[in-house]
Design brief:
Layout lengths: L6 H8 L3 H9 L3 H23 L2 H18 L10 H22 L18 H16 L2 H12 L4 H8 L3 H29 L1
């Protein structure tokens, strides 16, 4: 069906919205799950660190959350919530379960919780991170790439140009276009959520 192995398929899932990917996951498409994982693993892990203050439990949370996505994709209702909201709820619920389980189990010798974690218990910032991830997943790959490299990896436009091989002027143009597209996407999401309330 796809010549050249999975490359053509990967290109197809990169431009697909989160909710459509969940539909594919419900049909058993593990590559669609892999794309959702790539888009949201950082947010799930960061939420785990913030809530559980333990890197091992945060890793377990990532595994549990995406296993729940795989198992529950058929019950996802895009009319009730966006994928990002649904995944955030799964993540919060699983984190609560893991925290309860941890409280029952005493710490082993040499096992210390991770206390000094940046971010703090600010639910507004956490929700904003999820909103940002969803908006990034909806913009074209070429725009998402420059924003991810600039804002999540801290690269300058010149460094992005060197790493990707894209001319500096093109990086600047894409960055400007990406920011405009991202803002429009986030405004559209906000308006859509207001209509549902």
């Amino acid at each position: 069906m796809f010549s050249g192995g999975g490359e053509a398929y990967v290109a197809l899932v990169k431009g697909v919205g989160d909710e459509d990917l969940v539909d594919r996951v419900a049909e058993g498409d593990d590559r669609a799950l892999s794309e959702l994982y790539d888009r949201y693993v950082r947010q799930v892990y960061a939420t785990g660190i913030r809530l559980l203050k333990d890197s091992h439990l945060a890793e377990e949370l990532v595994q549990d959350a995406f296993t729940n996505v795989w198992r529950g994709a058929g019950s996802f209702d895009r009319d009730r919530a966006s994928f990002a909201t649904w995944l955030y709820r799964i993540t919060r619920n699983r984190a609560t379960d893991l925290d309860r389980r941890r409280r029952v189990r005493p710490l082993s010798v040499g096992e210390e919780p991770l206390w000094n974690v940046s971010g703090g218990p600010d639910p507004e910032a956490s929700v904003a991170l999820w909103d940002m991830a969803r908006a990034l997943s909806l913009i074209p790959e070429e725009h998402r790439e420059v924003l991810t490299l600039a804002y999540f990896e801290g690269l300058s436009q010149r460094e992005i140009s060197r790493r990707t091989g894209i001319p500096l002027g093109t990086v600047k143009t894409r960055t400007t276009a990406a920011l405009k597209r991202l803002r429009r996407t986030m405004e559209d999401d906000t308006a859509a959520e207001a209509r549902h309330e």
